[in-house]
Structures are given as structure tokens and as C-alpha cells.
């Protein structure tokens, strides 16, 4: 596998990894730096390509998840040649939203509007009513807990023992 990192900000530069340990090496490096934005280009041994761009408060956790899932997933998302959009056509909107939430908001309370804004930065347009509907369904399915009245509702994941939520700790060892 080949991974190229393009980093903007404090540790600006470009870095490439190649070989079977490339995913772990890239994750370890990303978790050790400060950056404003990171672009990740990944090419699996079978020729499958993936691209993602991360910025914001939780970019490191999202980038870690992207690298690890793309390196282990048999059908990694493909790099779009017409634009720099990240596609995950194999996932439903509900699955993509739940995965997104697990890595963007693992142990914090969040609102529908928080999710809408961050989701649009990563994937593109989504209606607030769609986000609210899926959050309500995840609450009903006992995935999320919630607090507050209808106008000030916040959600958080119930399952704090999920190993994916503790990924940043695993890379520190």
C-alpha cells in the first residue's frame, strides 16, 4: 500500500509511506503533529485509490479512521478524477452518518445543527431535517442518548466501550 500525506499548517509538507506497515506509520505520524489541514492519498496493492481531506477540531481522529478503514476494507472508496470529492457509494446515508458521528463526536454532546455543519464540510449538502430524523432513529434504536427539550436537544453515543472510539489511545502505545 502507498499513502501520501499533504499537510498544511505548523508541520506543512508532504510525506509518503509504502509497504505493509504504511497505514500504521501514517496514523502514528498524524497523531503526533499539529496541522490546519491534511490531504490523504491512498493506493492499495490492488490499485484501488482513495482520497480524503481533513480540517477542523477533530481532523486527526477522522484521518486515522479513514486510513485504517481504507487499508482494511476490501472495497476502499475510489478517488474521483473529476473532482476532489470523497465517495463512499457502498454505504447508505444512515450508515455513513452513523460512522461519521462515531468519529467526529465520539464522547461529546452534539446537536443536529452541529452535525449538519460538520457533515457538509466533509461530504456535502444534507438537510437539517434529514439529520434530525436519523438522530431520532438512532436514539430510538438505543445507539444514542439525548437530553434537552425539542429546541435544545443534544445527543451522545451510549456505547462508550466501542474500541473504535478509543482509537487515539491505541496509537500512543
What do these coordinates show?
This protein has 6 helices and 6 strands, in the order E-E-H-E-E-H-H-H-H-E-E-H. With 173 residues, it is of the alpha+beta class. The chain has 2 domains: 2-86, no CATH class; 93-168, Arc Repressor Mutant, subunit A, CATH 1.10.10.10. The strands form 2 sheets. A 4-stranded antiparallel sheet has the order 2-1-3-4, with helices on one face. Strands 5-6 form a two-stranded antiparallel ribbon.
Give keywords.
173 residues, elongated, 2 domains, two-stranded antiparallel ribbon, Arc Repressor Mutant, subunit A, alpha+beta, 20% strand, 36% helix, disordered C terminus
List the helices and strands and how they pair.
Layout (H helix, E strand, L loop, with lengths): L1 E7 L4 E6 L3 H9 L6 E7 L5 E7 L3 H14 L20 H12 L7 H11 L5 H13 L3 E4 L6 E4 L9 H4 L3
Helix pairs in contact: 1-2, 4-5
| Strands ordered across the widest β-sheet | 2-1-3-4
Helix content: 25-40%
SSE arrangement, N to C: EEHEEHHHHEEH
Q: Low-confidence parts, pLDDT < 50 over ≥5 residues?
A: 74-89, 162-173
Give the radius of gyration: 17 Å
Counting helices, strands and paired strands, the structural category is: alpha+beta
Strand % is: 15-25%
Total number of β-strand segments? 6
Question: How many helices?
Answer: 6
Largest sheet entry: 4 strands, antiparallel
**Integer tally of domains:** 2
